[in-house]
């Protein structure tokens, strides 16, 4: 490393810092995968469709995630449905 004008100790430190930063970027790279669902939901909401958690009234399957038109949203909200996917993933 002396050939490039960098002392060996500093070169090792620079390599360690780069490796650390690359490790963080790789580790956080998967975080974006979790937001792909939200991104798809936003596309529905801005394209005239909305993702809602529909409350069915059934004891066996009380909720289900559905996509409805923007014009049907008020009717669904009036009987207790909520905007966004159901928390239990159904």
Protein model, in words:
The protein is an alpha+beta fold. The chain folds into two domains: 2-33; 40-83. The protein has four helices and three strands. It has helices at 8-29, 31-34, 36-46, 73-78; strands spanning 49-55, 63-69, 82-83. The protein has a three-stranded antiparallel beta sheet. A hairpin with a 7-residue loop joins strand 1 (49-55) and strand 2. The model has no long low-confidence stretch (mean pLDDT 76).
Give a short summary of the structure.
This protein is of the alpha+beta class and 90 residues long. It is built from 4 helices and 3 strands. A hairpin with a 7-residue loop joins strand 1 and strand 2 (63-69).
- Distance between the first and last residues' Cα: 58 Å
Number of strands: 3
**Helical element count?**
4
How much helical structure, as a percent, in the residues?
Answer: 40-55%
Question: What count of structural domains?
Answer: 2
Classify the secondary structure makeup into a structural class.
Answer: alpha+beta
What is the helix/strand order? HHHEEHE
- Spatial order of the strands in the main sheet? 2-1-3
**Sheet bearing the most strands, described?**
3 strands, antiparallel
C-alpha Rg (nearest Å) = 24 Å
**Quaternary structure type:** single chain
Shape: rod-shaped
Question: How large is the share of residues in beta strands?
Answer: 15-25%
Poorly predicted sequence stretches spanning 5 or more consecutive residues? none
Mean pLDDT: 76
